[in-house]
Amino acid sequence: MTRDEIIKGLTVLDPSELFAEADRVRRECVGDEVHLRGLVEFSNVCGRDCLYCGLRRSNKEIVRYGMDMAGVFETARIACEMGYRSVVLQSGESARYPTEEIAGLVRRIKKDLGLAVTLSLGERSRETYAAWREAGADRYLLRFETSSREIFQRLKPDSSYDERMQCLRSLRELDFQVGSGIMVGLPSQTPEIIADDILLMKDLDLDMIGIGPFIPNPDTPLAGEKGGCLDLTLRTLALIRIVTRNAHIPATTAMGSIDPQGRQKALRCGANVLMPNVTPTQYREHYQLYPGKICIKDRPGDCMLCITGMVASLGRTVAQGPGHSLKRPVSGAV
Ligand code: SAM
Ligand code: SF4
Ligand code: FES
Asked: Has residue 113 been placed in a domain?
């Protein structure tokens, strides 16, 4: 697809043909199986000050927490018992957990549980990424958030676009399965910028692509902004599916948070992954990137039941394997 064709897809009056094409490409390139990744949000401590995020260090309105590694392992063990074959360990970006502590956790999860492990801990040094890969981490998620340097710099004032891109390159060189993505509906974002985002995703040849609507958080400087709508998010998702073919693309929590049917709709126009929350319930209300986040009061088992029902109601099946990348041969795969 050309840039102009992508822009047309983002702006055309009736997107139903676009959605049908994305669903067809999804079926042809990744099939009817939906992969589940159990999401452990193990710490909301963050040293960065991203303008859009409720975990930003200047936000004094939230209660900070950090699970210990034994607690994270136990959470992963319960997820494994419930049937998950893959976990995502996510947190704010902070040096609170030294490289070796995370490496030890990954080693134990790989050895005792045999799960595929995805990390999403922000920007770290190449040496740290190498140690985590060496410990057995399979995948890393790091959204570039926007391909517009100008918007990036404004919304992530203490980060650098070039350094984030360098992190993505290092992760690829270290043989991680790499995931990245954007938020839709950021202030000043245009269809042209989203088209460039999508072309960048293709260029980076990403194994996984996560997108969601930007949802303004009242405790951040972007409180008064409009935020992203589901329609534009679904158009972006559909175009990403058509352009990147066999990437793994989740129907994200943010989509489900702005519309009760958001994730179901996403699964019908290109998505093939769900990331149910497996974080112990007592921490969930404190990992509020944005208001209205779903599953805050639910327990891991509730989410598993809800998700399997959702997949079945769409006539799809839950995948039984770890759901590795379809883009390239995977080394050290379980
Ligand atoms: N700290 C790590 C990082 O920034 O890469 C990982 C955790 S961070 C909370 C995960 C993602 O949440 C970010 O990449 C961003 O796209 C998303 N996010 C943050 N604030 C958001 C908001 N207000 N609305 C929607 N998504 C948001
Ligand atoms: Fe921290 Fe990530 Fe939120 Fe930025 S998006 S404030 S790095 S948790
Ligand atoms: Fe948590 Fe539906 S996924 S209750």
From this structure: yes
Would you call 149 exposed, middle or buried from its count of C-beta atoms within 10 A (0-12, 13-18, 19+)? exposed
- Ligand 2: residue of 42, 52, 53, 57 to mutate (most ligand atoms within 8 A of CB) is 53
List Cβ neighbours of 26 (8 Å cut-off, separation of 6 or more). 241, 270, 271, 272
Q: Which domain holds residue 73?
A: 3-315
Model confidence pLDDT, tens digit, residues 126-160: 999 999 999 999 999 999 999 999 999 999 999 99
b vs e for 173-209, b when ≥16 Cβ sit within 10 Å of the residue's Cβ? ebebbbbbbbbbbbbebebebbbbbbbbbeebebbbb
DSSP 112: I
Are 131 and 84 a contacting pair, CB within 8 Å? no
Please tell me if the CB atom of residue 142 comes closer than 6 angstroms to any atom of ligand 2.
no
Distance 44 CA to ligand 2 centre (A): 9
Would 281 be classed as within a structural domain? yes
Question: Which CATH number characterizes residue 289's domain?
Answer: 3.20.20.70
Residue 9 CB coordination number (10 Å): 25
Closest CA to 38 of 257, 255, 253: 253
* Model pTM score: 0.98
In a domain, 151, yes or no: yes
Give the number of domains in the chain: 1
Ligand 1 atom with the smallest distance to the CA of 183 is 16
Residue 324 inside a domain? The answer is no
